[in-house]
Prior knowledge:
Quinone Oxidoreductase, Chain A, domain 1, alpha/beta, six-stranded parallel beta sheet, about 20% strand, about 300 residues, disordered N terminus, zinc, three-stranded antiparallel beta sheet, Rossmann fold, zinc ion binding, alcohol dehydrogenase [NAD(P)+] activity, 2 domains, oxidoreductase
Amino acid sequence: MLFWGHTGEEPLTDRTTIGHENTGYVVGIGKDVNGFKIGDLVGCLGYDCEGCQVHNLFCQEGTGRMHGFTCPGHFAEYSVSDARNAMVLPQGMDPDTSAPLFCAGVTAYHAVKGCELVEGQWIAIIGCGGLGHLAVQYAKAMKLKVVGIDISKSQLDDAKSLGADFVINTIEEPDYEAKIKKLTNGGCHAAAVFSASNVAYESAPKTLRINGLMMVAGIPIKPLSISALDILLGRYRVAGRSSGIPKNMPEAIEFSYKHGVKAHITSFKDLNEISKVIDLLKSGKAAGRFGILFD
């Protein structure tokens, strides 16, 4: 199956089972595994070796092995995960809406937390889709003020319904920089970029007050262009948080459960419908996350 990735400009064509975010019930346990029992409801991150637990770029297998990309993923009735990459879900947590938390949620949570803001400060969530709609929820749970920024009306409507204090469509409001500076009394204290668009990164500094923080979360294919002079003079700062690694998993999942953070998920019940999912993603009309359910 062909599918688009962020590793280059061409589709990934190696044969594999896709799907890198999952929850499911334990049906078998390796002889050296502790902390799990048959029937546990678990979620798993998609890395495949000890080095990958730092980041898959440090894979000790010689390649960035990640479930659903370069080794078999979870769009299957049964899948195998390293126990070090798994955790038991809090009791009562919905497995269907929890699956996307095991990458998108962990990434969004730590990106927002990593901005190190305090109650009442402003954060711009740039890109309010799959990760961004989770970031809005995390930011509001942390009692931050949120500006949702996107070019999609439906995603901005979603951000507003999730508690964003105001939203801006940068195409319809080309004067968004002045508007944000006025509404936030000088600019946002941080901007977390969840879009994979270089244009989104170019717009981020315009939303910030002096010495604000740009948090890198979305991964464009092309390199970013950042002003060395602006960084040198302290016009703004740049930071990143490693995406979705196992040591960050429990804190993010437990916070999500405590504060009722849920992914907006469109569910499909037949693997044959995966092609429909891919078509929606390529069309740019995707909202939230997509999931395949197995009874």
